[in-house]
Amino acid sequence: MDKEVIQYIITYFRVLMTDDEKLALKYQMYMEKSSDNSKQRKMMIEKGWINSENKTTDLLKTGYEDFEANVVKE
């Protein structure tokens, strides 16, 4: 499937994702956002925005692009 189509589906049909997939997406977004700011990352972890449960990290273990492709396939 085309990368642009995958991105479109992730962006506009996020409501159809499972709760675990939504958590993994948030985890990826917040980890990326706080990659060079340890204070910000610590605050996000304390507030529960970054949750590294096994299901969340398992969905992302092969990389974010694979995660997106797997979400769209299912």
Task: Name its key features.
single chain, mainly alpha, 5 helices, 69% helix, elongated
How would you concisely characterize the structure shown here?
The protein is mainly α and 74 residues long.
Helical proportion, percent range? 55-70%
Sheet-strand content, in percent, reads under 5%
Secondary-structure content class: mainly alpha
Rg (C-alpha, Å): 13 Å
Can you count the helices?
5
> Helix and strand string, N-terminal first?
HHHHH
Question: Mean of residue pLDDT?
Answer: 90
In words, what does this structure look like?
With 74 residues, this protein is mainly α. The relative contact order is 0.19. α1 (3-12) crosses α5 and α2 crosses α4 (54-60). The model has no long low-confidence stretch (mean pLDDT 90). The longest helix is centred in the middle third of the chain and has 15 residues, at 19-33. It has helices spanning 3-12, 19-33, 38-46, 54-60, 64-73. It is elongated, with a radius of gyration of 13 Å. It contains five helices and no strands.
Topology:
Blueprint: H1 3-12, H2 19-33, H3 38-46, H4 54-60, H5 64-73
Helix pairs in contact: 1-5, 2-4
